[in-house]
């Protein structure tokens, strides 16, 4: 059985105030810089602001912009309009359309339409949002990415996320087709985040059933079970296992006796290894 790598490439409202920076360096708390070996060498979220005020990831700021350094050394930036933020901490690099160029996948949240997955790419020397998924419909309805992989075996990478992991718990999978994000699968009873936590990675990707196609491990909506899902030929559950507590912190993927195993972060700091 071949294990696929984990892809790192998913509150009460308060009155709005003017945008503020966290510190002189303009660093976003808990943010991670994505580093790649393709056309994008580095991507990071910039310009912390409190204009959205959802705080689902703990800190009282989100990112107002994205900065990308290309492999050729050129640095590009994308700044969002005043009613939008990147409600995210982890830019995800992937060639989604197979053209040999990297895209960046992020969660963008709007005061008008809520959250949506967006695909950012370099086009003619500038950064632009080239595709976006359906919005959640209203502000402070968040979604959390669960990973990027070829989930249906067609040779193209797909984007999986959990819509409103604290209130709805619907796993949705999209692929970039003819310049648009098209939904190819969905299922309920999932969650991959604890409200107010900066831990966004309560999920793991590997070929758990040995069919050569990536599968997804994600907690049930109450986070007391780990579900192993396949999307080849339609959504079906490979298996489900009870957890010795609630999933709460980032998962890691390990290999035991040649088989992929998920190390689940549980509430209270404990960790547990689970396989289908």
Task: Give an overview of the whole structure.
- The two termini are 13 Å apart.
- The chain is an all-beta fold and 276 residues long.
- The protein has strands at residues 34-35, 40-49, 62-70, 75-79, 84-86, 92-94, 103-110, 114-123, 126-132, 143-149, 158-163, 170-177, 180-187, 204-206, 215-219, 225-230, 236-242, 247-256, 259-266, 271-274.
- It is built from no helices and 20 strands.
- Strands 5, 6, 7, 8 and 9 form a 5-stranded antiparallel sheet that branches.
- Strand 6 and strand 7 (103-110) form a beta hairpin.
- Residues 1-25 have low confidence and may be disordered.
Question: Summed up, what is this model?
Answer:
This protein is mainly β and 276 residues long.
Low-confidence stretches: 1-25
User: What's the total count of β strands?
Assistant: 20
Query: Sheet bearing the most strands, described?
Result: 5 strands, antiparallel
Structural class: mainly beta
Radius of gyration equals: 18 Å
Determine the N-to-C terminus distance.
Answer: 13 Å
> Whole-number average pLDDT?
91
Q: What level of helicity do the residues show?
A: under 10%
Count of helix runs: 0
Write down the overall geometry. globular
Strand content: over 45%
The helix-strand sequence is: EEEEEEEEEEEEEEEEEEEE
């Amino acid at each position: 059985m071949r294990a696929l790598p984990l892809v790192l490439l998913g509150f009460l409202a308060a009155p709005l105030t003017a945008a503020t920076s966290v510190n002189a360096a303009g660093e976003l708390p808990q943010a991670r810089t994505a580093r790649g070996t393709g056309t994008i060498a580095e991507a990071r979220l910039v310009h912390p602001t409190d204009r959205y005020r959802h705080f689902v990831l703990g800190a009282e700021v989100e990112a107002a912009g994205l900065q990308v350094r290309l492999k050729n050394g050129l640095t590009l930036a994308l700044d969002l309009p005043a009613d939008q933020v990147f409600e995210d901490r982890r830019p995800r690099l992937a060639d989604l359309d197979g053209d040999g160029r990297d895209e960046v996948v992020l969660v963008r949240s709007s005061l008008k339409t809520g959250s949506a997955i967006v695909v950012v790419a370099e086009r003619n020397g500038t950064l632009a949002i080239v595709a976006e998924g359906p919005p959640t419909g209203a502000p402070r309805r968040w979604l959390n990415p669960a990973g990027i992989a070829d989930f249906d075996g067609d040779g193209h990478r797909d984007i999986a996320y959990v819509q409103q992991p604290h209130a709805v718990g619907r796993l949705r999978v999209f692929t970039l087709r003819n310049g648009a994000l098209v939904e190819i699968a969905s299922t309920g009873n999932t969650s991959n985040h604890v409200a107010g936590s900066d831990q966004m990675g309560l999920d793991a990707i590997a070929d758990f059933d040995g069919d050569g196609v990536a599968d997804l491990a994600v907690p049930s909506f109450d986070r007391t079970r780990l579900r192993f899902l396949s999307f080849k030929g339609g959504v079906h559950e490979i298996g489900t296992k009870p957890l010795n507590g609630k999933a709460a912190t980032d998962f890691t993927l390990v290999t035991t006796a040649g088989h992929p195993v998920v190390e689940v972060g549980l509430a209270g700091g404990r960790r547990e290894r689970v396989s289908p």
